[in-house]
Specification:
This protein is of the alpha/beta class. Helices cover 44% and strands 16% of the residues. The longest helix has 26 residues, at 174-199.
Length: 660
């Protein structure tokens, strides 16, 4: 590492105060409120002499080591459960400010909470950065979001169009006639120049650093127009459209972060029946796919929250201080990445070995994983070491970042790999996979027996099987006895744990390998590199040099052992704390005999630990058969613990009665 003894000990980031950092911004106390509401005055403009700082509390939160969990904790008060969906949506929105943003698709049945999740999360981000589109056509997108520019890139205002002179505007007589003729000649000259300028003009739509939310499936023409940019193939595309016999050019530039909300089952006709649209399938497979939870526990919690809002509406009419602070913190992170050439570096050269490499889709899946990891690290910009190279700054992700993102990814891995929603994959794993050959009627009966309050028709089952065949999960053949009927054969026979899950379950080994990988990276890149970290004093942030040992400590330290009590439940839902507890348990019992047996706390059947790995929930041990039964009933972990405790209490009372 370079010697900093002859350099200033501080790389100061002190800037002029900005309007958005003022306590009076967009309030009645703002001296320029009207200009701010009209958009004339931006939050990034220099502040006036009446500036009052409001950032002290914001700095306390943004430099918090568990900032992402703090955001989730605040979000939990508005959207119950749905941890994977909320994490994915938050990360997708913030990725808009990075160089390689994410695209996500929220898929699920109508009413499951897709729109509510996205709209609630997007509220944390600056309104000027979020675009909600409701089935916009290309022309509507052009008119609503476009700016007319000339060939040199200068804005054109339609008010600049020359007005044709009228004779009544000039005095009567010969002199007035001459003036009118001169005005007509000048008008023709200017009008010809205007026409030439308009003919060479184009409508410019900038999507750079924008968050686009399609609240419903976009028209195919709109999606095709945006496809090269949304796929990150090219950063600038030109599109031509015709209006009133005139061809107009539209130029779209920039990579946005995009969220698609798609209900299960839109229109496509096959053999006289209506099935899902196919043009969306092609693009959704390129997205980070996630489905909101539809369990009974989620429904119960959501109804309880709705009841609370109806009982005390005054508590939800004004924005909470915690929400306001998070919004300001996100603006701080955004401004750093947009104005100071910030990016994220992943200092682990063997990280690709953590991710599965079994199908072609795993290449795209790993790209998604890296984008999610970089964005999660961006949330912790003010806690991570920062590398300076060639005038640019790179935030370094830590081992804790990798483990947390991997924990989130285990929830959505199969959805990302296949592009299918959770309902469809659960249907396959719980029913289809357990048979050898199926007909639609048998599948419908099996599903409706397992879900008596959410029955499906034969058309829905047929659609599901067709979609499963498209991802290679099912083969569709003809019944030999009745050629009019289809026979469905499952192709994926075992629900194996992906490599990312297996390695995450042994966190000590995972940490050890990541530490080795980081040391290799440090040997190659750390010797002639400057490292910095944000320090806070008097309400200001300063980027100060740090030593190599400090960098090493911040990257490899384990923060999960000191999670504050208020955030414990969030980390348990993410899975990182639960994994740590299981590891500690395994470490204590690593010398036990392989043939040791244990009983399931629900069915009392003996579990041979050498043949089966039970599920540990709280202090309850559940065998795989009972666990599958609980999942089929829609039980969450809390529900399982509750019913097991109830059964234990009943057994204890029964035993006491018998002994008495």
């Amino acid at each position: 590492m370079k010697d900093h003894s002859n350099k200033d000990k501080t790389l100061s980031n002190k800037k002029r105060n900005q309007c958005g950092q003022c306590k009076n911004w967009m309030t009645d106390n703002c001296s320029y409120l009207d200009d701010a509401k009209k958009g004339i005055l931006k939050r990034t403009d220099d502040a006036c002499p009446d500036f009052l700082s409001k950032m002290s509390k914001t700095w306390e939160i943004v430099k918090h080591p568990y900032f992402f969990a703090y955001v989730l904790n605040d979000l939990e008060q508005k959207v119950k459960r749905d941890i994977p969906t909320k994490c994915t949506t938050l990360i997708t929105c913030l990725s808009a400010y990075l160089s390689d943003p994410l695209n996500s698709a929220l898929r699920g049945i109508p009413g499951v909470g897709k729109s509510f999740n996205v709209v609630t999360v997007a509220d944390y981000f600056p309104p000027e950065d979020v675009m909600f589109l409701l089935g916009s056509s290309p022309k509507a997108l052009m008119l609503e979001k476009g700016v007319l520019l000339d060939k040199d890139g200068n804005p054109i205002s339609l008010s600049e169009k020359p007005e044709k002179p009228r004779k009544g505007q000039f005095p009567k007589g010969d002199e007035g006639s001459l003036q009118f003729e001169e005005a007509q000649k000048e008008y023709k000259r200017r009008f010809n120049e205007w026409n030439e300028r308009i003919a060479e003009s184009y409508t410019f739509i900038s999507l750079q650093h924008k968050i686009i939310v399609f609240l419903e499936t976009p028209p195919e023409e709109t999606l095709r127009m945006l496809y090269p940019i949304l796929s990150h193939d090219v950063k600038r595309v030109e599109y031509k459209t015709v209006k009133e016999m005139t061809t107009f050019r539209v130029v779209i530039e920039g990579f946005p972060a995009v969220l698609f909300l798609q209900a299960s089952g839109t229109s496509r006709t096959v053999h006289g029946r209506v099935y899902q649209e196919s043009y969306m399938e092609e693009f959704v497979t390129r997205c980070l796919t996630v489905s909101p939870e539809s369990s009974q526990s989620k429904i119960s919690d959501a109804n309880e929250l709705t009841n609370v809002k109806a009982s005390t509406p005054w508590e939800y009419e004004t924005e909470k201080e915690s929400t306001r602070i998070i919004k300001e913190a996100i603006v701080l992170i955004r401004d750093k990445f947009l104005s100071e050439n910030f990016d994220v570096a992943v200092p682990f050269k063997n990280l690709h070995k953590l991710y599965p490499r079994e199908t072609v889709g795993d290449m795209r899946g790993f790209q998604h994983f890296i984008r999610v990891l970089k964005t999660f690290t961006a949330f912790h910009l003010f806690q991570r070491p920062i590398l300076k190279r060639d005038g640019n700054f790179y935030v370094l992700c830590s081992i804790d970042d990798v483990i947390t993102v991997a924990s989130i990814y285990t929830f959505i891995f199969e959805q990302v790999r296949t592009g299918m929603e959770e309902t469809l994959l659960t249907f396959y794993n719980d029913i289809v996979r357990k048979g050898t050959e199926w007909q639609v009627k048998a599948l419908m009966e099996q599903y409706n027996t397992a879900h008596p309050k959410n029955k499906k028709s034969s058309d829905t089952i047929r659609l599901w099987m067709m979609r499963l065949s498209e991802i290679g999960y099912v083969n569709i053949g003809r019944d030999e006895k009745d050629k009019r009927k289809n026979i469905y054969e499952p192709l994926v026979s075992e629900a194996e744990k992906p490599e990312i899950v297996r390695k995450l379950e042994n966190q000590p080994i995972l940490r050890s390998k990541l530490e080795e990988s980081f040391e290799e990276w440090l040997i190659e890149n750390g010797r002639e590199t400057e490292f910095y970290q944000y320090q806070f004093s008097s309400g200001n942030e300063e980027l100060s040099p740090i030593e190599l040992e400090t960098v090493r400590h911040n990257i490899v330290k384990n923060s999960f052992k000191n999670v504050p009590m208020i955030l414990q439940s969030i980390y348990e839902q993410l899975g990182v704390i639960k994994s740590e507890k299981l590891i500690e348990k395994d470490r204590k019992e690593e010398n036990r005999p392989i043939s040791e047996k244990r009983k399931c706390d629900w069915c009392d059947q003996t579990i041979d630990l050498g043949e089966e790995e039970p599920e540990i929930m709280g202090k309850c041990c559940i065998c795989s058969v009972c666990l599958r039964d609980f999942w089929n009933r829609g039980y969450g972990e809390d529900d399982v613990i509750r019913v097991v405790k109830q059964r234990k209490a009943i057994r204890e009372k029964r035993d006491e009665y018998r002994e008495g």
